[in-house]
Amino acid sequence: MVATHFRIPLIFALLLKFLFGWDLAGAAEEAPAVPVVIATAKAEERAPRTLATGTVVSRADARLSAEVAAPIDWIAEPGTIVAKGDVIARLDTARIALTVRDNEAAVKRLEANAELLRTQRDRLQTLAAQQIASRNQIDEAQSRLAMADQEVEQARVARDRARLELARAAIRAPFAGQVAERLRMTGEFVAMGEPLLRLVDTGNVEVIARAPLAAAGALARGQQVRVLDGGREVMSEIRSIVPVGDERSRMLEVRVALAPQAWPIGAAVQVELPSGLAQRAVTVPRDAVVLRQGAAYVYRIGTGETAERIPVTPGAGRADRIEVSGDLAAGDRIVVRGAERLQPGQRVTIQGGDAEVLAESKGPRTRAS
Questions:
Q1: What homologous superfamily is domain 49-60+201-274 in, according to CATH?
Q2: Gap between the Cα atoms of 83 and 271, Å rounded
Q3: For residue 263, what is the DSSP state?
Q4: Comparing 20-34, 171-185, 325-339, which segment has the lowest mean pLDDT?
Q5: Does the predicted model carry a pTM greater than 0.70?
């Protein structure tokens, strides 16, 4: 919170003292104690951060194609929600069904021929035992039978391929999701491998962001990061890092887990990523920092319950706290509410604060660098 309060200019204060003998500096000490709410300055391990632009994507986003060439008999409407294994498109199977019947008939015919050749070979083997048939006749019969068996096997492969095409004429969802786009319409003839529709798993999403290569050493799987798009933000974790940088942009890919329905797929977001190693810093509540005429300061409660104005330089903020550098130490009591009425050296009455500051005991403190 930016607190703005008005103080009498120095020249005006000197004029009042000269004309009427009024001492405004001493008045601050004699004024009634101001009620304030305080909090504790804390030392935290914080890493420098950078905002990376990201896009919300589905972890399962596929364009499903036809595996056979045939007209489309039926295709699901965009927006249809399907489970894994559900039929989302069906091709006309009349021609494929005829091919299956033709191949099945060829298999039966070739199997019958192979059975006949097998019987003839067995008969020649019986005659050869009686020294009626020659060895050449047996070898020739065996060769014809072997070729017939191979023809049967080829016919069975053709039959099974036709059966597979018949089964593949029904395109099934490889995962649960929602039909996002229909690329062909009912009645159109499609070739093998031609895309029919787009299926997206809307319940399994993540953010793909680009981070500078220089930040690679500060990134790790499982790190908690902020995902935001202006007024809205959520905390999530890094799912994976692709440690391969683009030679032109010098950026690497970071994938951040995201809860379902947090943002629609395709939304542009920003991801706050660590850009360097963590360093120790003093943080205070955002509401404790007073900004006035380009300067920033906080009020610290000093000895005798008096207010001390401490100039600070604000740094990076996270959640409701902000880094500051100045003459502050971890454990210092900082005014969060009531600073707009304070003057340096004025006494205060503590009306509230966090549990840590209210129970604080006096002790050594480490100054911020």
A1: Efflux pump adaptor protein, beta barrel domain (2.40.30.170)
A2: 32
A3: S
A4: 20-34
A5: no
